[in-house]
Design a protein that fits this description.
Layout: E1 8-12, H1 30-38, E2 43-46, H2 51-61, E3 68-70, E4 75-77, E5 90-92, H3 97-111, E6 115-117, H4 123-130, H5 134-140, E7 146-151, H6 155-167, E8 170-174, E9 179-183, H7 188-203, E10 208-213, H8 219-224, E11 227-230, E12 249-251, H9 256-268
Parallel strand pairs: 1-2, 1-10, 2-3, 10-11, 11-12
Antiparallel strand pairs: 3-4, 4-5, 6-7, 7-9, 8-9
Length: 272
């Protein structure tokens, strides 16, 4: 079990974990966040949200300046103190949003796939779909290296579309509510592996990591971490990790920030 005396790193998905997927609230997680801050334990946000969204959320949570992973690993923001790093302040993994947009639009035009992206609809529709307030909708649209889509076709056609993407060096990941298309060089697991190595290089030792997720697109992140919290989520697909030993993996009973806190208390309790 991890200890507060270890060099700890908490890596967390947002929607359905630290944030309630319906209300975007995090109140039940505040005491745990305060405790982690008091113990100088970094909380690295790792989600499908854009960098712009994540920076705004960091500010609300009191995590500003920490490194984070955005757009399912396609974007890595470095800690604000790492201004000597050659990739500072932000690294893009693979193709840009505009490049990906052109590819999937061409596939849609050629094969008639039925899906809707953020680029296809206005802000009002995005708000209706996501429940986001207007100020966050504008930030959600600032994708740099991925494309969010709502699939409106058959499962068979989904498989075909995914195969087409794979042949072009792209991949599609399922989140809690949407699908996300990004470069195969992205992914939360590869991004976390790279980020852990930066901490190891700077601190002289590999941090002990606890990753928290609730959806299939979190699996690669959960597999990389030393310990994994799988928050009870709403995805139709199960969250299946490689090493599911009970000493490494904890599955929560509660959803959202309640489950987030439950999982960390399991591994870190008692946390004064």
């Amino acid at each position: 079990m991890p200890s507060l005396t270890d060099s700890l790193l908490i890596v967390s998905d947002l929607d359905g974990c630290l944030l309630d997927s319906h209300t975007q609230e995090w109140d039940p997680a505040i005491p745990m966040l305060d405790s982690l801050r008091e113990h100088h334990i970094p909380v690295i946000l790792c989600s499908s949200k854009t960098a712009a969204e994540t920076i705004a959320i960091q500010r609300e949570l009191g995590l500003q300046g920490e490194a984070f992973i955005a757009e399912n690993g396609a974007v890595i923001q470095l800690n604000e103190e790492w201004d000597d790093h050659p990739q500072y302040p932000r690294m893009i993994n693979g193709d840009t949003h505009e490049s990906i947009r052109k590819v999937i639009n061409e596939l849609r035009h050629t094969h008639g796939y039925k899906f809707t992206t953020y680029d296809d609809v206005d802000d009002a529709m995005i708000g209706e779909i996501t429940g986001l307030p207007a100020k966050m909708i504008a930030l959600a649209k600032l994708q740099e290296a991925s494309q969010t889509l709502i699939w409106r076709d058959s499962d068979e056609r989904l498989s075909s579309f995914n195969n087409e993407l794979n042949s072009l060096g792209l991949c599609m990941l399922e989140g809690g509510h949407f699908w996300h298309v990004l470069d195969q060089r992205g992914g939360k697991g590869s991004a976390l592996t790279w980020l852990i190595d930066q901490y190891r290089h700077r601190d002289g030792k590999r941090p002990v990591t606890i990753a928290i997720g609730d959806s299939p697109n979190d699996v690669s992140m959960l597999d990389v971490a030393n310990y994994a919290v799988i928050v009870h989520g709403y995805s139709k697909q199960p969250v299946v990790v490689k090493n599911d030993e009970p000493e490494r993996v904890y599955r929560t009973k509660a959803h959202g920030p309640e489950g987030w806190t439950e999982g960390l208390e399991h591994f870190l309790s008692p946390l004064p």
